[in-house]
Amino acid sequence: MSKKKILTIIGILFTTLIYSQQGFVHEQSQGYVWPEEENVLEKLDEWQDQKFGVLFHWGLYSVPGIVESWSICSEDVDWIPRDSTMSYVDYKKWYWGLSEKFNPINFNPDQWSDVMEKAGMKYAIFTTKHHDGFNMFDTKQTNFSITNGPFKNHPKADVAKYVFDAFREKNFMVGAYFSKPDWHSQYYWWDYFATPNRNVNYKIERHPERWEKFKDFTFNQIEELMSNYGEIDILWLDGGWVSPGRQDIDMDKIATMTRQHQSDIMIVDRTIRGKYENYQTPERSIPAEQLPFPWESCIPLSSDWGWIPDAKFKTPSEVIALLIEVTAKGGNLLLGVGPTPDGIIQPEVETILSEVGSWLKDNGKGIYNTRITENYNSNNVWFTADKDKKTIYALYIPNEEPGYPSYIEWEGNNPIKGGKITLQQNGKRVKWETKNNKTRITLPKIKNNANLPMVFSFTSEK
To answer: Is the pTM for the entire model greater than 0.90?
Structure first.
């Protein structure tokens, strides 16, 4: 049995998630299939070096500041809120009508990329279309897009193009998020029938010609993105209920076309285990254990993916702690940020991310370009390693109480005798000793009101 097959089997054992979820969360795939294309494997390895990315949800839902798309889905669950004074039919009409109000006149993709670059992020994924079917790119398959509403005469009306360009200029990898289901399309939610849930609302076996039109519609839209928007590193497909055995859109055909235009692109048909899920995407969660294949945790900065008024954001310390744990377990962190209805990243978000970036500027060696270690966690200390495994990084996450303790300890990953341990943020050596497989570091006195994590580097005995 090959090493990759063994790792895939091991990975199946490690898919239990540790966080309770808010709202609908896509289940994580059980197991992983490695790509066969060498150039895709090389791109995956490069992507694993990046560690920290941003996911932008921006669309009609941003105008009133509500949950993205889901309020038009007629499922009886608490996390899908809508105006109870309106009938469902009237609510959908109101929602579709937001296309005549979405006019982000201050849209500034350069500001977006500046903020994310200063945050220390290395790749960006932009939502070109969410489940509501509203397109944030200049598609020719439908008029339901940003380029046909009040923003159509703006010089940057084709917003996807300018977002991708702004991030490429800063050497980011870029990805196109695309929803496979499309609730606005008559080929998916046909007005002839009611729309009781998220799925196609007619029987495909009874109306195969309609489903074929939807497949063509989806194929053509993805081809537009793959051929008209420059180099795309990631095709991030959402809506895992659209899949073979239920709602087959012919991923073989889509993937073949995609790689004709973008030969080394990573395709992420999320939650659909197989050759088109080039990395896994546990949502709002971190796997309980290390996973021996490529993955990213996608977690929003606030409680929602898109912009909402009066949002409660994670603190810089919380974001850094997520990034540390994800990295030590072998993944990337994709942080969800919702631009405002008028098209900017709000000041509160900019401030939080700037502090994260300042920390990464001093401590990024313990995050970027690292790989997992066999012993990756001891209490509130996490471990990563350089690719050559010669340098180990110990990433200490303080408790919530203000102030640092006088020392920290960890088990395993013992430094070599007579070696040095360096505090990354200032490059100074620290006092340490190892007894009974426990290493104790005497912490230097550092003024840090935010209680941000510390990163130490050393050479391990192994």
So the answer is: yes
Class of domain 3-369: alpha beta
Alpha helices in 249-315 (DSSP H): 251-261
CATH class, range 373-459? mainly beta
Q: What is the pLDDT of residues 47-73, one digit of tens each?
A: 999 999 999 999 999 999 999 999 999
List Cβ neighbours of 135 (8 Å cut-off, separation of 6 or more).
Answer: 128, 129, 142, 144, 145, 146, 147, 221
Confidence band of 448 (pLDDT split at 50, 70, 90): low
Element (H, E) at 218: helix 208-228
pLDDT tens for each residue of 193-222: 999 999 999 999 999 999 999 999 999 999
User: For residues 123 and 233, is the Cβ–Cβ distance under 8 A?
Assistant: yes
Q: Are strands 422-423 and 428-429 parallel, antiparallel or unpaired?
A: antiparallel
9 SS3 class: helix
Spell out the domain ranges in the chain.
Answer: 3-369, 373-459
Rounded to an integer, what distance in angstroms lies between the CA atom of residue 30 and that of residue 380? Answer: 28
Report how far residue 164's alpha carbon sits from residue 295's, in angstroms, rounded to the nearest whole number. Answer: 22
* 3-state SS, residue 349: helix
